[in-house]
Amino acid sequence: MEAFDADVLIVQECEDPVLAKDAAYLEWAGHYLWTGPSKNKGIGAFARRGVSLTPAPLDIQPLQLFLPCRVNDDWPLLATWTRQAHSPTFGYIGQLWKLLQAHSAFLDHPRAMLAGDLNSNACWDQWDRWWNHSDVVNELGKLGLVSAYHRYFEEDQGQESQKTFFLQRNPAKGYHIDYVFAAPGWGTGVLSVGEQDTWLPLSDHMPLIATFPAS
Q1: By the 8 A CB rule, do 137 and 157 touch?
Q2: How distant, in Å, are the alpha carbons of 55, 67, 124, 186 from that of 110?
Q3: CA atoms within 13 A on the CB side of 215
Q4: What is the pLDDT of residue 1?
Q5: Is-contact 58 70, C-beta < 8 A?
Q6: Is residue 52 predicted with pLDDT exceeding 90?
Q7: What's the pLDDT score for residue 53?
Q8: 171-182 as b/e, with b when 16 or more CB fall inside 10 Å?
Q9: Rounded to two decimals, what is the model's pTM?
Q10: Would you list the DSSP string of the chain?
Q11: Are 71 and 8 in contact (CB under 8 A)?
């Protein structure tokens, strides 16, 4: 990941660096925020030197899994890894839908950003459910946040040509479930998805790389 030379990295399913047994991981983590239901599996936001991350005081329990913060004490970032969260009704994308009902004001900013693994796609919308993937996309749209991938590649939700996740690392079982939603203040970003040959030996997820003009 160091090769990306990123200002901020959002990593799902990672260990809490301070409790990990690998000292090199903690040294690499540098300035970071992390949250998770166990020390072995959570979501982390890792910033390069000179970029600050400040936790945002949102009461989001028991929703999983969200890491709201402000970057450089300025723009809001909602790092996301939606989970089933033991919810009989509002699992995965439903968790994000519920968060938006209570905390949409956090993302009401000209340079707000939401990024991460939503475990969701419009192809799984259900006709009698009011919190489908498409409903969440519409809610974000009302705040001005648009999927950078879909804007850059001019593809519709649910019609993605590039996959970000391969079940059991099987190239035949690809899905698009990772996203970056950015507010208008970021302009038109450049998007790329990691190559399967490079990343499948390491992970079932491909990195989604978003590059925006300096603001």
Answers
A1: yes
A2: 19, 19, 30, 8
A3: 17
A4: 87
A5: no
A6: yes
A7: 97
A8: eeebbbbbbbbb
A9: 0.95
A10: -GGG--SEEEEEEE--GGG-S-HHHHHHH-EEEEEEEETTEEEEEEE-TT--EEE-----TTS-SEEEEEETTTEEEEEEE---TT-SSS-THHHHHHHHHHHGGGG-STT-EEEEE----GGG--TT-TT-HHHHHHHHHHTT-EEHHHHHHT--TT--SS-SEEGGG-TTSEE--EEEEE-GGG-S-EEEE--HHHHTTT-SB--EEEE----
A11: yes
Give the whole-number percent of the chain exceeding pLDDT 90: 95
Is the per-residue pLDDT at 207 higher than 70? yes
Tell me what pLDDT residue 215 has.
Answer: 57
Angle at which helices 133-142 and 93-103 cross, to 10°: 30
Residues 206 and 15: their CA atoms lie apart, in Å, by 19
- The mean per-residue pLDDT over the stretch 4-22 comes to 94
Residues 135-177: tens digit of each pLDDT: 999 999 999 999 999 999 999 999 999 999 999 999 999 999 9
Task: Single out the residue of 148, 131, 155 nearest to residue 183, CA to CA.
Answer: 148
Give the integer Cα–Cα distance in Å for 54 and 72.
8
CA distance 72 to 183: 17
